[in-house]
Specification:
5 strands; three-stranded mixed sheet; 2 helices; two-stranded antiparallel ribbon; alpha+beta
């Protein structure tokens, strides 16, 4: 799993860690040190943790003028055990909603 990285072709158009409106603004990533775990498997360090124990995300693109965002997910959606919808809503969607993002495409 440590070899599966978020889709990187969008980096020419958008980088969430450099967008002041993004919930992941200012994050620093290591290409050599894996720290995120998913069921005892290390994930590629480019994935963003947002509070869920089984789900990680990457905002690939956000268009504030048109009000949409592309978000790639990896892991397991598990509301029964971890309430992932709450973490996704509070940590990502609510932050983007305040910036005018009302439509989401999840990959």
């Amino acid at each position: 799993m440590h070899d599966i990285e978020p889709h990187f072709q969008w980096r020419d158009h958008y980088i969430a860690s450099e967008d002041k409106r993004s919930p992941f603004y200012g994050r620093r990533y290591s290409e050599f040190y894996d720290s995120n775990l998913l069921y005892n498997f290390y994930l590629h360090p480019q994935w963003d943790a947002f509070g869920s124990a089984t789900l990680y995300a990457k905002i690939l693109f956000a268009d504030y003028d048109q009000g949409f965002a592309l978000i790639e997910l990896i892991g397991e959606w598990n509301d029964a055990l971890h309430n992932d919808i709450m973490f996704l809503k509070r940590e990502i969607a609510d932050v983007l909603l305040k910036q005018g993002i009302t439509k989401y495409i999840f990959l």
